[in-house]
Design brief:
Elements: E1 3-7, E2 12-16, E3 20-21, H1 23-38, E4 44-47, E5 53-54, H2 56-71, E6 76-79, H3 83-91, E7 99-101, H4 104-117
Parallel strand pairs: 2-4, 3-5, 4-6, 6-7
Antiparallel strand pairs: 1-2
Helix pairs in contact: 1-2
Length: 118
């Protein structure tokens, strides 16, 4: 799995450098999310700007991230979704469950706003 990780004081940004988030990638992504969480990051942003396709195993990895962050009292935010990935999330009715923004900057603003509320 090709990705970059940018750790900040209050959140971590995982930018996936893969066109497909499928069975070949999802297990590694789940592992990486668990490792980041174990390092104390309750807030994560998953940047899928380069990802054009996602299957059910990819959705599973996304849901693991969402659950891990929520259980830690934080937020898991998806950003830069392609139309195909947005459509899959919508068809799966996960757009009601997942936190989705249009850019990493918007995701950071969402995290900051949530921090103020707490």
């Amino acid at each position: 799995m090709r990705y970059t990780l940018d750790k900040n004081e209050k959140y971590a940004v995982v930018k996936l450098h893969e066109q497909k988030l499928n069975t070949l990638i999802s297990a590694e992504l789940k592992s990486e999310i668990l490792i980041i969480s174990s390092q104390g990051y309750a807030n994560m942003i998953l940047d899928l700007a380069e990802t054009q396709y996602c299957d059910s195993s990819g959705l599973s990895a996304i849901l693991v991230g969402n659950r891990v962050c929520r259980n830690a009292g934080g937020n898991f935010i998806l950003t830069n979704l392609s139309d195909a990935v947005k459509k899959l999330i919508s068809i799966s009715q996960l757009d009601q469950v997942l936190n989705i923004t249009s850019s990493v900057n918007d995701a950071v603003k969402t995290l900051s706003a949530d921090e103020v509320k707490k």
